[in-house]
Design a protein that fits this description.
Chain lengths: ~525, ~250
């Protein structure tokens, strides 16, 4: 009786979900003829999902390739790592997909049609989970891709099926969690500003995590890909394809062991990825999250449009301004961060280039440096949003110091979420010195965030734009230098010096941050 | 049945002790000026809104306790219709029938009948988005009637309908009432209420100001419109208002 009822619910949910997906696709294709909200919804859902599909598919392919690219002896470990990575990936991405999709479906009239119809809550939940999962097409392909990868590397059907099943179970778990959070958001009509900000920060954190994870995985996989392709090219020696491949000079050098070019290409990819990640983060993820979670202006800005605009319009505009009057660069953080932050990020990339003896470690340094910068940027962004929309005035009866400390806790949690897994991996790989340096990124990040937040809160008035200017760049550069320098010294063989420098800088920043945040004036 | 319904939105009291009853076989007109509480009453009856006081029963079911069961028994047409515009009317009816759990035979038998009556056969394979407002209204009406409910709650159901379809719908409502259905109808067009309603419930500022048969409510006045103007207290000022506009 119970199972037949469950089956009926799933069937009804399936029917509703198909109609909702069709409606969403339709709204996205109608362009100008649609209502504003419908168009924005469709763009939001589908451009976002398009991005998620591409990212997800690339990441899952990289994970599937991973055990295939490592020596036979390590393949079991590689297989476990790639399956675990795949499961975590689908959980996280389907969480975001369902959270965002369900929330939007609830807020953009998709459910109004169902109001007069006898639809139980459970049936609606099934419909929302299926509808939002259906728009994330890459998850459908994720299982087979990983299964094929597992079979190719392990030659074991059971393990292949195992990876297939775990991916789909992970996707379902992610979808269920996403729906849960979406219900919490969508179900509350009057969401308090602080609650909304916290959610926004959560969403931002997850999106930045995607970017950083993708960056890290691509950098880790890239040499393996090149090696695999090179081995493939060598195995083709004498064939037509071989001749064709060798006809292209740069590829010839890259594939036949011209290490200079290979490393140049690697460096170029790293630099491009760093810049791209930042641009995406600054103009895509943040704006997208802010728009999606801010009911005051339901503009759904998908990541592609602002990203394109920033590349085509903003960067040249910033450079033109910079050449005309250098002071202008620091006048507005939009210009300065666009122009300067990618440049600041080149520091660890170059250190990486010179310290290629321990390239993987330097990639880690890059990762941690980006984490620290991202944490700062999150603090900044949330303060900026609160200032712009007058939410800060709501706190005026309370305590500015309390607000500043609350923001600091959120930023710290973000940093901890990023850094701790890296530290644990290092501890498990018995690289205790590197683990100690990586843990020092937490107080360093916390201290830098505290300085930034306290500066902002002190100078903040609801009716004025936030004055954050050049200090932002300086704050961004300090943690970059912290992780890059300490890891650079460590990779040159000076482990103790690396640890000491890392912790000295971290403690100095933490103390400075603590003093600054404690100096935030209370409102009388 | 509504018993002493109270609903407040912040400081505004939308319903202030509204009570009335619609018996089986009756068409009751819920009338009143804009903002008088008609739509709120209907929303409470369907379980979309929770009352702050009093209670409602629809076919013996309390919409607060079991809103899904109420929606199962009721055919509802909202004032602002919302449809999945990516579907054709045919697909939409199939969708509604599937969600309502109708058998294939029931669905085919009924849909053919309604589609023919409301003259939308030629639009059955056209996307709803491309239909006129009147045709969309017909789609909403048919989807509310498809499961042949014993209770009909209709908020401005004739909006945008052509004269023929409006006439057919009015006749259909009378016929359903004769067969034992309870119909609650909200409209701004007083002539319609006069023609098809057995009883009138007139709301003003969240209260029932007049209730009874059409003749009782009119009580010597020429039309329901006169009654409405009288109870809202602007009949005397009407000429001055129009002259000010001109």
């Amino acid at each position: 009786m119970r199972s037949s009822r469950l089956l009926a619910s799933v069937r009804k949910g399936w029917t509703i979900s198909l109609v909702m997906v069709r409606e969403a696709i339709f709204r996205s294709s109608r362009e100008r003829q649609v209502f504003r909200t419908g168009k924005q919804l469709a763009r939001g859902v589908f451009m976002y999902n398009g991005f998620m599909n591409v990212m997800g598919f690339l990441l899952i392919s990289a994970l599937a390739m991973y055990p295939f690219s490592i020596p036979v002896a390590d393949r079991i470990y590689g297989f476990q790592l790639s399956t675990l990575g795949a499961v975590l990936l689908v959980i996280t991405m389907n969480f975001m997909n369902t959270f965002y999709g369900s929330w939007l479906l609830q807020n953009f009239g998709y459910l109004d049609v169902l109001k007069p119809l006898p639809v139980e809550d459970g049936e609606l939940q099934v419909a929302l989970i299926i509808a939002t999962s259906l728009t994330s097409l890459w998850i459908i392909f994720a299982g087979p891709v990983l299964a094929i990868g597992a079979y190719a590397s392990m030659n074991d059907v059971v393990l292949s099926v195992y990876s297939l099943v775990t991916v789909y179970v992970g996707a379902l778990i992610g979808a269920a969690l996403g729906y849960l959070v979406a219900s919490m958001v969508g179900g509350r009509r009057y969401v308090t500003p602080s609650y909304r900000t916290a959610l926004m920060q959560l969403a931002q954190t997850l999106l930045v995590l995607f970017t950083l994870t993708a960056y890290y995985i691509v950098l880790s996989i890239f040499p393996l890909v090149i090696r695999t392709v090179r081995e493939f090219a060598v195995s083709l020696r004498g064939s037509i394809l071989h001749t064709l491949l060798y006809a292209i000079y740069p590829i010839n050098i890259a594939f036949t062991g011209g290490d200079t070019l290979l490393e140049t290409v690697q460096l170029a990819v790293q630099l491009l990825w760093l810049m791209g990640s930042w641009l995406f983060y600054r103009y895509g993820a943040l704006r997208f999250c802010r728009s999606a979670l801010n009911p005051k202006h339901r503009m759904i800005m998908h990541p592609v449009k602002p990203l394109t605009r920033s590349v085509i319009y903003r960067v040249p505009a910033s450079m033109a301004v910079a050449f005309k009057d250098l002071k202008m660069v620091f006048r507005d953080a939009r210009y300065s961060s666009t122009l300067l932050l990618p440049l600041v990020m080149l520091i660890p990339a170059f250190i990486n280039w010179y310290g290629r003896a321990r390239a993987q470690l330097m990639i880690l340094a890059n990762y941690l440096a980006m984490v620290e910068v991202s944490t700062l940027a999150l603090s900044l962004q949330s303060m900026q949003v609160e200032g712009r929309y007058g939410w800060l005035s709501l706190y005026h009866l309370g305590s500015r110091r309390k607000l500043a400390k609350g923001k600091l806790v959120l930023s710290t949690l973000t940093a901890v979420a990023y850094i701790l897994p890296v530290s644990l991996i290092l501890i498990f790989s018995m690289d205790i010195a590197a683990a100690l340096i990586s843990v020092s990124c937490i107080p360093a990040s916390m201290g830098a965030s505290a300085i930034l937040i306290s500066t902002l809160v002190k100078g903040l008035k609801p009716d004025q734009p936030i004055a954050y200017r050049g200090g932002y760049i300086a704050m961004a550069a300090i943690p970059m230098l912290h992780s890059s320098l300490s890891f650079a010294i460590y990779s040159s063989g000076q482990a103790l010096l690396g640890i000491l420098l890392g912790w000295a800088l971290a403690i100095a920043l933490a103390i400075l941050g603590w003093v600054c945040i404690d100096k935030v004036p209370e409102i009388p | 049945m509504c018993m002493n319904l109270v609903k407040r939105y912040g400081d505004v009291t939308a319903l202030d002790g509204v009570s009335f009853k619609v018996d089986a076989g009756e068409v009751v007109g819920l009338l009143g000026p804009n903002g008088s509480g008609k739509s709120t009453t209907m929303k409470i009856l369907l379980g979309f809104v929770r009352p702050d006081g009093g209670y409602a029963l629809v076919d013996g079911v309390n919409p607060v306790e079991d809103p899904v069961e109420v929606r199962r028994r009721v055919g509802y047409v909202p004032e602002n219709i919302v449809l999945y515009e990516s579907l054709t009317p045919k697909e939409y009816f199939e969708f509604v029938a599937r969600v309502r759990g109708l058998t294939r035979e029931e669905y085919e038998d009924r849909v053919v009948k309604f589609v023919k009556a409301f003259e939308i056969e030629e639009y059955m394979d056209v996307l709803i988005t491309a239909l006129s407002k009147g045709s969309k209204q017909k789609v909403a009406l048919i989807s509310a009637l498809l499961h042949e409910p014993d209770v009909l709650i209709l908020d401005e159901p004739l909006m945008g309908l052509d004269a023929t379809s409006a006439r057919i719908f009015k006749e259909y409502l009378r016929m359903r009432a004769l067969r034992g259905a309870a119909v609650l109808l909200s409209t701004h067009i007083m002539e319609i209420a006069e023609k098809i309603c057995d009883r009138i419930v007139l709301l003003h500022r969240g209260r029932v100001v007049v209730s009874g048969s059409v003749e009782e409510v009119k009580s010597g006045l020429e039309s329901l419109e006169e009654v409405l103007l009288k109870v809202t207290g602007i009949s005397g000022e009407l000429r001055e208002v129009v002259e000010a506009l001109s």
